[in-house]
Amino acid sequence: MTAAMRVMSSLTLTLFFSIICCSLTEKLSNASSPNIIIMLMDDMGWGDLGVLGQPSKETPNLDAMAAQGMLFPNFYTANPLCSPSRAALLTGRLPVRNGFYTTNGHARNAYTPQEIVGGISKDEILLPQIMKKKGYVSKIVGKWHLGHRPQYLPLKNGFDEWFGAPDCHFGPYNSSIRPNIPVYNNSEMLGRYYEEFKIDRKTGESNLTQMYLLEGVDFIRRQTEAQRPFFLYWAPDATHAPVYASKPFLGQSQRGRYGDAVMELDYSVGHILLWLKRLGIENDTFVFFTSDNGAALTSGPNEGKHYK
């Protein structure tokens, strides 16, 4: 998708890993290891935020985060597709090196729906594996998308906890050949999208973002109380088609259902930042917000119907 090749408000892999690695090397005197939160959105465009020019100004928490922190407006995501972009983020290596590369039609591992058996190579070293050696506890909340077979799942690749799904929320499906995508709590399958975890394709209503928010906050609270440094990889997928939002946010945006999803994600980011302050760890936590690739026309108000 061409939008993904536009300048995005994300960190280059070099800068991103420089910051992370510096925090994991020699500790400063009387200082503990900083907590690290990466908030990775799905198909959210750089122009969806008020701070980057969206005229409806429906992202007050993210706009405030940008004003109070650092904004990186001149960098590119590693790939215009979900899986290779995420693989690059977690490995620090470009898709052509980590095995996830180019587009659906050409890549060996560029996309991992249920029919594909591949996934992240066991030879790759992921960020949570590095951090584990420094005493960090790591959790992924939301979309993984680096392989759905058991050997490729997050707990086999350095994460200590996981709540979410191995793939995107495509569906609904109703056959044994292509069942609905499963949702996991660690290694236990809790149910499936469109079944136990409802997504109403007609109205766009789903409580998934709220579930992901609660899981993220719970992890932050537990690790803070245990005085353990943590890495939270928070990866909701509400802005990926078919777009969804919970009932309190549906119909609230000037930008249709997609705007509703963005508003709920903005609210969730604000809630997480508020909890960092409540727990007294806001100055001991790096928080990064970015997107896996640019906005997709299929995620817009009419979900691509007028862009054939």
TrEMBL record:
Signal peptide, first to last residue: 1-25
Transmembrane segments: none
Superkingdom in the source lineage: Eukaryota
Cofactor: Ca(2+)
UniProt keyword terms in alphabetical order: Calcium, Hydrolase, Metal-binding, Signal
Record InterPro entries: Alkaline_phosphatase_core_sf (IPR017850), Sulfatase (IPR050738), Sulfatase_CS (IPR024607), Sulfatase_N (IPR000917)
A Pfam short name: Sulfatase
SUPFAM superfamilies in UniProt: Alkaline phosphatase-like
UniProt keyword annotation of Cytoplasm present: no
A GO molecular-function descriptor: metal ion binding
Sulfatase N-terminal domain span: 34-301
Family annotation (PROSITE patterns): SULFATASE_1 (PS00523), SULFATASE_2 (PS00149)
UniProt family annotation: Belongs to the sulfatase family.
Name of the protein described by the UniProt record: Sulfatase N-terminal domain-containing protein
Organism: Pagothenia borchgrevinki (Bald rockcod)
